[in-house]
Amino acid sequence: xxxxxxxxxxxxxxxxxxxxxxxxxxxxxxxxxxxxxxxxxxxxxxxxxxxxxxxxxxxxxxxxxxxxxxxxxxxxxxxxxxxxxxxxxxxxxxxxx
Length: 97
Description:
Blueprint: H1 3-17, E1 26-35, E2 38-48, E3 51-52, E4 58-61, H2 70-88, E5 94-96
Parallel strand pairs: 1-5
Antiparallel strand pairs: 1-2, 2-3, 2-4
């Protein structure tokens, strides 16, 4: 099964669990990862109309926060993503972190 299909199934389970239906036209999901505290990255996947938007996938290299600072890394990724979304007038209706 492809990673896109797995992500869609996971998102559907999350939406049902929290009674979030596809009433939101755009959703963005964020996650952090690192290799034993080094090379921290954040991933963003954008859903539009309940489907993954191919142009909405983005990998952020965390530059300012240290590898083990998850809150700092998430703050940095969100600030960069939302700044870009605000400039393009594409702010999401819902953020899942």
